[in-house]
Design goal:
Layout: E1 14-18, H1 45-58, E2 62-66, H2 76-86, E3 89-94, H3 101-110, E4 114-118, H4 124-131, H5 136-149, E5 154-160, H6 168-178, E6 182-187, H7 192-196, H8 198-201, H9 205-221, E7 227-231, E8 251-254, E9 260-261, H10 282-288, H11 290-294, H12 311-314, H13 319-326, H14 342-354, H15 365-372
Parallel strand pairs: 1-2, 1-8, 2-3, 3-4, 4-5, 5-6, 6-7
Antiparallel strand pairs: 8-9
Helix pairs in contact: 1-2, 2-3
The structure holds FE2/S2 (inorganic) cluster (FES).
């Protein structure tokens, strides 16, 4: 898909396939929506295969198999094999707790290209507490070692927050010891369950700066050995991130039931209607659906974004965050220093980080019902 019209969408680079919202873990920063989709609504294998064929035809290159926990799908190997046949580079985003040798060998045989394993902490007591699963951390370590033994590239994902932030240097050492190619030191982003748990997760600015220093030092020391990505919390930023590379510009997110979203949190924005792959083609949805057009390019922007010289670089930041904090998705992302709400945004983080952490609300269908009641 090529066009000389800059507002015309180009081909998406990646497809995030949320195969299921089922997960044996209950991480309090899970990016899934509070309203988890039930297993009975999950797309069958044949529909996922068709979605992957359509995605490849549309120009998608990378497939991110996610959840929930994607390995709870018994047809995962079939889906991976279809992705390989379609020419998609497949990345399995997993907790690793169900990834034993038999399963991983089968996935490698099916054509899996890459594995990303999330870690809650480097010590099992706190890691298992955060995941709410006894023995989870030990299983993750085994899975990570297996991934490397079977010759697949490995990324470790470390979501960072006030209850594990002291472990950043140890996360770096662990990633190097496991032979990971990439480590994501990713401060939690406050959507979904993380927004519900913001006060329990928010670190202080000084703690964030300390992690930045640790990452810089390690990057220099481990150059050529380990690539370290560093994601700062938006609440301490001065310029917004180009969320999803810009709305409707690079990523398509398909939920377990087949809804097609411009980002994983898009359903928090009221008034948007999301199409389903069972009723409309992926191409049609990407090119013309109202939800993808709503914040694509710059037509929707108000001041200060409308006249900002960075508007085609940061794309106004994050629409979901703008709605969550400013109450309107077309407002400037409060992470931007030009937003009228930026000072209040930062003050919220500083206040919450300075108070004792409340108890976690763990991700579970029961907790979801309570939060949504
Ligand atoms: Fe939805 Fe940023 S998470 S636009």
């Amino acid at each position: 898909m090529q066009s000389s019209d800059p507002s015309c969408p180009t081909a998406p680079l990646g497809l995030l396939a949320e195969l299921t919202h089922r997960c044996p873990l209950q991480c309090p920063y899970c990016s899934n929506p509070l309203a988890l989709e039930p297993p009975g609504e999950e797309l069958p294998t044949s529909v996922w295969q068709d979605v992957l064929t359509q995605a490849a035809d549309l120009g998608v290159l990378q497939l991110h198999l996610s959840g929930g926990e994607p390995t709870v799908r018994r047809d995962l190997e079939v889906i991976v094999a279809h992705a390989a046949k379609a020419g998609l580079y497949s990345n399995l985003i997993t907790s690793g707790v169900a990834l034993d040798r038999r399963r991983l060998v089968a996935l490698v045989a099916a054509g899996l290209d890459h594995v990303q394993i999330s870690m809650q902490d480097v010590g099992s007591v706190n890691a298992d507490r955060i995941a709410q699963m006894k023995g989870a951390h030990a299983k993750k370590l085994e899975a990570a070692a297996l991934v490397r033994e079977l010759g697949l590239p490995l990324t470790l994902n470390a979501p960072i927050h006030r209850q594990n932030i002291g472990s950043v240097p140890a996360f770096i050492a662990l990633a190097a010891e496991l032979g990971a190619q990439r480590l994501e030191i990713a401060h939690v982003q406050y959507y979904g369950w993380a927004l519900a748990n913001r006060a329990a997760l928010m670190p202080t600015r000084a703690q964030v700066m300390e992690t930045a220093r640790a990452v810089e030092e390690a990057r220099a020391r481990l150059r050529g050995v380990l690539t370290i990505d560093f994601v700062v919390p938006d609440y301490y930023a001065v310029s917004p991130k180009p969320c999803m590379g810009g709305w409707g510009r690079g990523i398509i997110n398909v939920t377990p039931s087949g809804k097609v979203l411009p980002c994983h949190a898009a359903e928090t924005i009221p008034g948007l209607k999301f199409e389903n792959v069972q009723r409309r083609s992926l191409r049609d949805i990407w090119l013309t659906s109202d939800a993808f057009q709503a914040f694509r390019w710059t037509h929707w922007m108000r001041d200060p974004c409308r006249t900002c010289e960075l508007r085609t670089r940061d794309w106004g930041g994050c629409r979901c965050q703008a709605f969550a904090f400013a109450g309107a998705a077309a407002e400037a992302d409060p992470a931007c220093a030009k937003s009228a709400l930026h000072a209040a945004f930062t003050a919220t983080a500083e206040r919450e980080a300075g108070e004792p952490a409340p108890a976690f609300v763990f991700r579970s269908p029961r907790a979801a019902r309570t939060r949504l009641a």
